Amino acid sequence: MTHHQPKGTTPVLQLTGVTKEYTGSPPLRILHGIDLTVDHGELLAVVGPSGSGKSTLLALLGSLDRPTTGRLCFEGHDLAALTDPQLAALRAHRIGFVFQQFFLLPGLTTVENVATGLLYSGAPATLRRTAAVEALHEVGLGHRLHHHPDQLSGGEMQRVAIARALVGNPALLLADEPTGALDSASGATVVDLLRTLNAKGTTIVVITHDRDLAASFPRRIGIHDGRIDFDERTPHPAGAPR
Amino acid sequence: MTPAPRRTRLRPTDLLRLGMIGPRTRRMRSALSALGISLGIAAVIAVTGISSSNQAHLLERLDRLGSNLITVAPGNGADQKPAPLPPTAEKMLADIAPVQQVTATGATKAQVYRNDLVPTQQTGSLTVLAARPNLLDVLHATVRSGRWLDTASENLPVTVLGDRAAQRLGVTAPGERVWLGGQWFVVSGILAPNELAPELGTAALVGWPEATAHLGADGTAATVYLRSHPERVPDVQAVAAATANPAGPSTVAVSRPSDLYTARSEAKNALTGLVLALAAVALLVGGVGIANTMVVSVMERRGEIGLRRALGARGGQIAAQFLLEAVLMGLTGGIGGLALGALTVYGYALAQGWPATIPLATTAAAPLVSVLVAAAAGIYPALRAAKASPTDALRSA
Ligand SMILES: Nc1ncnc2c1ncn2[C@@H]1O[C@H](COP(=O)(O)OP(=O)(O)OP(=O)(O)O)[C@@H](O)[C@H]1O
Ligand SMILES: [Mg+2]
């Protein structure tokens, strides 16, 4: 898989008129009619002020939540037609998440944490373990296999989280402020990792508050008050300086 | 278009490992929660084990004493006064086919005192009985010290005292004297306690010829003791009254001391119910403890729950993880309780000189009950964990 997709293939994500409301009185409408298409191999930054609905959108993209109205297709499947267990299976096999707070499990070693990324896909334990070791080498943590999260730096923890997200070879990687809790050097390492991953074909959507980081991405989407404010592309993203 | 991925299930070993995460990372808290269950189970095991060890001990003793002993004694006549057995009773009873051995004690008019200075009313509720030479033999009774009556001493002022009789008369060793029927008798032996004939404990036994010659015994039996063929005991019981006194079978009391003995020992276990109720309360408290721990655990681990949902866990798999965690805590508690209870039973039985036994049913039920209690306690927190929306769980973590 390359990031040059031939025309006419199914987009990874296709949103038409997607809204999200939170029940309450009055109901709180967070997203208003989002139309968005994300193709295979894209590297996309989502920017916008705090509370504008970025995380809410990301949860919808990752099938963690369902739109209130509108249509959301993942690799051509209308998610509204899938049951909750089917959505869970979709997440297990096709989608990876990275969060600002890492969410590493304190009782498990780094290998075990990364292997958890394959747990719900039904892979046997030995395979999960080998894949986890490989993924940790990929993120440059081959020497930290048996450490516990509390023995790692923030940057290392986020790299473990990325290894956990990529261990299942997802088609789509969603990252919610992955560098938000890191210093600039660690943040840069994490972003480099994402770029490498993208270069291998994974579609990546990253929420970020970092303007420079967003500017270095081939495509940027601005969210403001639950609407798409702008959707711009940089003509030649590959090799662009950050 | 990629086909929708099919759903997969967690392997049992993976699920087990998931269930271990909580107890492994929160050892103290899990141990304390399990302790509640442990105490309840330990109490049940201890109570049932001690009572069954006691039972086993009694049965063992009964085996030694023989459960084929039957006693025939005068009952109340029509006038509500004791009707003495006919002089022929002993002989007639001996002729019942399955009866293997017969012996008897006979009533006397004598009383026994510590010495000649004690006022005659103060009998200390002791009786003086004439004894057949084979009495101890038939009862499987033994002398604690000294000697039983022999052909020489049964014609002499010689007595053998029951253990309580000796105590009340202040006799500590054979060779001392007691004031019996208005003369000094030499104590030749003291009996060891015998559960099947407790009435001998408070008796002073003298030879049958001596009793008829000097102590006013009329030669009839006060109690006839029979040893029956072990499998024919009910048959012998059925005909004993009519055989002993053909003229008035209803005035004869026939009983099997081993029955009385077991009935008596079972009555002592009435306390068991109370302890079991307490154990149930302990189990309930243990269950509430586990439920509480699980609720706290689910609240603390919202981030983990949200993450697992993001990694593809279904709600049911989240519920299974937490339910299993509760069950493992219960199982640990149950097994710990089993060990604690068993230790108590063995210690107690050892101290009492009983054979230690714990009913198999209790042993099997203990882990089962604790698992059930824990599962019941874990259901609500587990369902709560499963129902939490993934986005809420991730945001509030
Ligand atoms: N479960 C909920 N119920 C009610 N309101 C919610 C819920 N979840 C989110 N919101 C609201 O939706 C709005 C958008 O939240 P969201 O987390 O998507 O913002 P965001 O763009 O990610 O902000 P930030 O940059 O601070 O992370 C916020 O005002 C938030 O309070
Ligand atoms: Mg956010």
Describe the structure.
The complex is a heterodimer of chains A (242) and B (397). Chain A has 242 residues and is of the alpha/beta class. In chain A, 32% of the residues lie in helices and 26% in strands. With 397 residues, chain B is of the alpha+beta class. Helix content of chain B is 53%, strand content 15%. In chain B, strands 1, 2, 3, 4, 5, 6, 7, 8, 9, 10 and 11 form an eleven-stranded mixed sheet that branches. In chain B, a hairpin with a 2-residue loop joins strand 7 and strand 8. The mean pLDDT of chain B is 88. Classes of the chains: A alpha/beta (242), B alpha+beta (397). Magnesium ion binds at residues 54-55, 176 of chain A.
What features would you highlight for this structure?
heterodimer, A: 242 residues, alpha/beta, 4-stranded antiparallel β-sheet, globular, disordered N terminus, B: 397 residues, alpha+beta, 11-stranded mixed β-sheet, 11 strands, 53% helix, binds adenosine-5'-triphosphate, binds magnesium ion
The distinct ligands, each listed once, are: adenosine-5'-triphosphate, magnesium ion
Mean pLDDT of chain A: 91
Taking the sheet with the most strands of chain A, its summary is: 6 strands, mixed
Instruction: Spell out the CATH superfamily of the domain at 42-52 and 89-233 in chain A.
Output: P-loop containing nucleotide triphosphate hydrolases
What is the helix content of chain A? 25-40%
Oligomer: heterodimer
Rough outline of chain B: elongated
**Quick one: which chains have the greatest interface?**
A-B, 39 and 35 residues
Strand content of chain A: 25-35%
> Residue ranges of chain A: pLDDT <50 for 5 or more in a row?
1-7
What value does the Rg of chain A take, in angstroms?
Answer: 18 Å
How many strands appear in the DSSP assignment of chain A? 10
**Number of discrete helical segments of chain B:** 13
